[in-house]
Design goal:
Bound molecules: inosinic acid
Largest sheet: 10 strands, mixed
Radius of gyration: 22 Å
Shape: globular
Number of helices: 12
Structural class: alpha/beta
Distance between the termini: 7 Å
Helix content: 25-40%
Number of strands: 20
Strand content: 15-25%
């Protein structure tokens, strides 16, 4: 089903249900690659009656024989990845020989996590609602050219030197700027050199590995985390994550050229959700919000936070389709709308008497705009047992056709429940 090298990305604010779709597509590929973000992500996969939640390790690990890569664009918390590796091993999943981490991936250090919390508190009323995993501060150091890379863990002299300089700066910030306790250099050094021993066999030059695999005609799936609207360049800045989840990020975050990418699939939820703060034009009023949250079990896989819920926003998704060059869509959680008598789709934003059909760059407009809705009659019957497109209710098809028409991409996968088999393929 996955013909050629594919990038799979979220088209909304994350949590589109990418984990399940990646898991399905992974069956047909040789390599699965994470290219950005860190353990702020949470990909839920249900196999039979067992649920797995993966934060850093590509979901492909659940398929025996697949090579899973954590690319240079990811920020890795060694403690978190070792936890995840242990958890998978204890559940009988093979890691040795299946998982490789880029030498060039930057490390999340204990001071990044402390700074993430301190900065967030310092923001007062304009909090970003980060996951507190140290993601933003780790990328800040990467771009600031003071970050510590995975490869540095294996050269004690380089590691110690970089750590010393960082602790000096970060303790100044933590103590003097934020009035908190600083970190202890020797403690971190000891701890991270221990991690180095445990991670040694998993660290490699993954860009070389991938390019060799491509030459050998192996098939690669690039697994995006978060979503387009959380992209640091194209999302609702500053209420975004610190990396590039968009398809372009797959090249810089994995070390492959754009010419090797054959296909881009965007994942969209049949409605919209968002965790954390920031503008959300189609957000529902509290009562309906809660109803959709309960029906869709909309609670964060990483932080457990309740997700904000709203109607499908075709303005945002059309923008995401263009930025990512997504020719195909996977629509998830369609069954969650089974009991809605009227379903709304946002087709434009209205602000100061002007209608915006394209997503505005001015965050103020996104914050204050009034969504323009088109109402679609709900199908009011169960769909989670359906496996063929033709068997979907006519009103469901009408909703899906409308989405395609408004966003300009073809739906090729429909998910009607969390299980692998609760999936409808349209291009088979
Ligand atoms: P950070 O990535 O922890 O810095 O958080 C920045 C913003 O991105 C916050 O609003 C988070 O809630 C959001 N975010 C980060 N990762 C995810 C994710 O995997 N799904 C949904 N939202 C996310």
């Amino acid at each position: 089903m996955t013909k050629g090298n594919t990038v799979l990305i979220g088209m909304q604010w994350g949590d589109e249900g990418k984990g399940k779709i990646i898991d399905i597509l992974a069956a047909d590929v040789d390599y699965v690659v994470r290219y950005q973000g860190g353990n702020n992500a949470g990909h839920t996969v249900v196999i039979g009656d067992t649920q797995y939640v993966l934060h850093l390790i590509p979901s492909g690990i659940l398929h025996p024989g697949k090579i899973c890569i954590i690319g240079n664009g990811v920020v890795v918390d060694p403690w978190a990845i070792l936890q995840e590796m242990n958890e998978l091993t204890s559940r009988g999943i093979k890691i040795e020989g299946s998982l490789y981490i880029s030498e060039n991936a930057h490390l999340i250090m204990p001071y990044h996590k402390l700074l993430d919390i301190a900065k967030e508190e310092h923001r007062g009323t304009v909090k970003l609602g980060t996951t507190h995993r140290g993601i933003g501060p780790a990328y800040t150091d990467k771009i600031g050219r003071v970050g510590i890379k995975m490869v540095d863990l294996f050269d004690e002299e380089v590691f110690s030197e970089k750590l010393k300089r960082n602790v000096l700066e970060k303790n100044f910030l933590l103590e003097k700027m934020y009035g908190r306790e600083g970190v202890k250099e020797e403690e971190i050094k000891k701890q991270y050199l221990e991690y180095a021993k445990l991670l040694k066999n998993f660290v490699a030059d993954t860009s070389v590995m991938l390019n060799e695999a491509i030459s050998a005609k192996k098939i690669i799936l690039f697994e995006g985390a978060q979503g387009t609207m959380l992209d640091v360049d194209f999302g609702t800045y500053p209420y975004v994550t610190a990396s590039n989840p968009i398809s372009g990020g797959a090249c810089t975050g994995a070390g492959v050229g754009p010419t090797v990418i054959d296909k881009v699939i965007g994942v969209v939820k049949a409605y919209t959700t968002r965790v954390g703060t920031g503008p959300f034009p189609t957000e529902l009023e509290p009562e309906l919000n809660e109803k959709l949250r309960l029906k869709g079990k909309e609670y964060g896989a990483t932080t457990g936070r309740p997700r904000r819920c709203g109607w499908f926003d075709a303005v945002a998704v059309r923008y995401a389709v263009n930025i990512n060059g997504a020719g195909n869509l996977a629509v998830t959680k369609l069954d969650v709308l089974d009991e809605a008598d009227i379903i709304k789709i946002c087709t434009g934003y209205k602000y100061n008497g002007k209608v915006f059909a394209n997503f505005p760059s001015n965050i103020r407009i996104v914050e204050k705009c009034e969504p323009i809705y088109e109402d679609i009659e709900g199908w009011m019957e169960p769909t989670s047992h359906i496996r063929k497109y033709d068997e979907l209710p006519e009103k469901t098809k009408k909703y899906l056709n409308k989405l395609e028409e408004l966003v300009g991409a073809k739906i090729s996968i429909i998910s009607v429940g969390p299980k692998r088999e609760q999936t409808i393929f349209l291009d088979k």
